[in-house]
From TrEMBL:
Protein name: Uncharacterized protein
InterPro entries, per database record: DUF4246, DUF4246_C, DUF4246_N
Positions of the DUF4246 domain: 48-103, 154-576
Pfam name, any one: DUF4246
């Protein structure tokens, strides 16, 4: 038993003249604790200038440099190809790759109301080499390793698997979750503010650690805010409550302390063996996210920004439609035949002379150069032809470093979870659509929790979906402060075109998304803000749903001192009933009823459902306000128009 409870029991027993009990152990199903020591180790003392092992979105100096538009379209192309079925075989068919490149070029050419030359020979060579020489060998090798459970890289630092969980285990999870779903309507926990579309089954905002009220099982005293909480990135009132997952050197997982809001004896017996096996399959995904973060791969760039910027209309050359079509066809032909790509698209550009006549011609060209089609308008042939045959602007989009191909992270003893105890927060939720409410409007941009929990990575398993349209989980990242940038750039600078950024706004940059298809598992770093995209019913006459299991991985390094369920007794009234029954079935059950009741009365007090919901509202208000006002999440404001 925990030291505090040992002391509590024997103190009360001794007051009645009974000798101390030698064995007061609570059955392991009650606390699920297999730790040999009940003492909580203090956080590792690190020199002040030592950076954390893994970055957190609220750390100082955690921003990443802005990506060029050129890098973005190369990344998006690669990700799209690698999401195709059997892509590792299809990519060897150069004729098929040519088709993909044509599609990508057609989608890329019009950007920020400009028709810009993209996909030159260097782009094609780099994209193909990265797919064939970097991604394909890794994915082929991973497929031959059952212990990796179908792991594949997605965008940088994001990992996925579409075969993580076999059908038998998935069905076990669905059946287990049904016991949480099939409750009377008045007991269903609809997420506040979700208009009864998001059903919380297990959510960490209910019964969290409440500083000053939640009681430590080690010494019986209230748990207080850690001494390391020195700024407003910490909550001074609440912390989500992680469990301890022990990962063996063989990868097997044991849930060593109860899961908050899933802690009754029946729930532990039903859910924990299932969750242990699913988390075991998530371990390789988390290992690769941690490996990427350890090497700082979130800062990796394939394209270096231009060394200088000009007015957006200066130094623009033009490539007309016919020479582009002719030379692009030849360039793709060289690629398809496996020849050296010698066609240089930029050689066929035209620049108007710096004379009044040249200026007049250029302005005339720009005025008629193309028209953005309205979403609700049909395009007549003249409009379509004018856009399709308009010339391309040829711009400096940055320097592509041909050697900067993707490489996999090294999973070392330092970073991998095997042989360690992970602090994990579990969430189960359903998004439910009905004919009356057929659309889900999507989520907000956010990171998970605050510095108290120090969540480093999130793993999501989309284990059941029915009658909903395709959706994505989008990502973005915070950029360094751009407050002073406007003074170092020309008025109306081409910086915005080069980087696909607006001239004013917040210093964040969207970096793409991942499709959230049925039975897909993904893991991503918390330094990437994420947003659930909208979706709706396919058949609006029938209901539909999405069901997710989420694992939040707290910082696995030793400096993370967030309290876990090994330290905090279950605070739910129903869980307390199980604890009392477990005590009664143990050695304490032989004590006189009066003594037994005194022991029970001295246990840490429960938090009623009404109180828990009130605390949840306060927690959500606090964190929503923090996220909305945090420059680390929303990015600082900037304006490149202010001169």
């Amino acid at each position: 038993m925990h030291f505090y409870l040992d002391q509590l029991v024997n103190r009360i027993v001794s007051s009645f003249g009974f000798p101390p009990l030698k064995d007061t152990t609570v059955p392991t199903q009650t606390f699920r604790s297999t730790s040999t020591s009940c003492l909580s180790l203090p956080a590792m003392e690190l020199p002040e200038d030592t950076p954390p092992m893994y970055p957190h979105p609220l750390d100082d100096d955690n921003a990443t440099e802005v990506l060029t538009w050129r890098e973005q379209y190369l990344r998006n192309f690669s990700s799209a190809i690698r999401n195709k079925p059997n892509w590792t075989e299809k990519v060897l068919d150069r004729a098929l790759v040519v088709k993909w490149i044509r599609e990508a070029q057609d989608q890329t050419r019009i950007w920020q109301w400009k028709k810009i030359l993209a996909w030159n020979g260097a782009d094609i060579e780099f994209a193909y080499r990265e797919l064939v020489e970097a991604y394909k060998p890794f994915v082929d090798a991973a497929k031959a390793k059952p212990e990796l459970y179908g792991l594949e890289p997605d965008m940088d630092c994001v990992w996925r698997s579409d075969s993580l969980v076999d059908e038998e285990l998935r069905k076990e999870l669905i059946d287990a979750v049904a016991t949480l779903e099939n409750v009377p309507d008045d007991q269903k926990d609809w997420h506040p503010g979700s208009e009864r579309q998001v059903l919380d089954l297990v959510h960490p905002s209910l019964w969290p650690v409440i500083y000053g009220r939640s009681i430590s099982l080690i010494d019986g005293k209230p748990i207080n805010l850690p001494e390391s909480a020195i700024d407003d990135s910490y909550s001074d009132r609440f912390s989500w409550l992680p469990s301890e997952f022990e990962i063996g050197t063989d990868g097997k997982v044991k849930i060593a302390s109860y899961i908050n809001n899933l802690s009754t004896a029946d729930q532990q017996k039903l859910f924990y063996p299932i969750l242990e096996r699913i988390f075991q399959r998530f371990v390789p995904l988390f290992n690769h996210v941690l490996g990427d973060l350890r090497r700082g791969f979130q800062h990796y760039s394939r394209v270096i920004s231009p060394s200088h910027y000009t007015h957006d209309n200066e130094e623009v050359e033009w490539l007309f439609y016919e020479p582009h079509k002719e030379n692009f066809d030849e360039l793709l032909g060289q690629f398809e035949r496996g020849e050296e790509m010698t066609v240089c698209m930029e050689k066929f550009t035209h620049q108007f002379p710096d004379t009044p006549e040249g200026e007049k011609l250029r302005e005339s060209l720009e005025d008629n150069y193309w028209v953005e089609p309205g979403e609700d308008d049909y395009e007549d042939e003249e409009r379509t032809e004018r856009r399709d045959t308009a010339p391309y602007q040829v711009r400096d989009l940055g320097h592509l470093v041909m050697s900067n191909l993707w490489t996999p992270p090294e999973v070392t003893d330092e970073t991998k979870l095997e042989g360690k105890t992970a602090k994990v927060i579990v969430k189960l939720a359903n998004i439910i659509l009905t004919p009356e409410k057929p659309e889900y409007s999507g989520g907000s941009w956010h990171v998970e929790a605050m510095m108290n929990e120090r969540i480093i990575s999130t793993g999501i398993y989309y284990y059941a979906q029915e009658n909903i349209t395709e959706s994505e989980l989008e990502f973005r990242r915070t950029l360094p402060s751009m407050e002073d940038m406007s003074w170092s750039l020309p008025q109306d600078s081409n910086w915005t075109t080069v980087h696909n950024m607006s001239s004013s706004g917040n210093s964040v940059q969207e970096i793409g998304g991942i499709k959230t298809i049925n039975n897909r598992a993904i893991a991503f770093p918390n330094i990437y803000q994420h947003q659930v995209q909208p979706f709706k019913l396919v058949d609006p006459t029938k209901p539909g749903y999405r069901k997710v299991l989420v694992f939040f991985l707290c910082d696995p390094s030793e400096e993370n001192d967030v309290p876990t369920t090994r330290v905090v007794a279950p605070q739910q009234p129903e869980a307390r009933k199980d604890l009392v029954e477990a005590l009664r079935q143990g050695p304490l059950g032989s004590l006189p009823e009066e003594v037994f009741r005194l022991i029970v009365e001295e246990l840490p007090p429960v938090v009623t459902r009404e109180e828990a919901e009130k605390y949840r509202e306060e927690l959500m208000t606090e964190r929503s306000s923090f996220i909305e006002n945090s420059d680390a999440v929303q990015g600082g404001g900037y304006s490149l128009c202010e001169h």
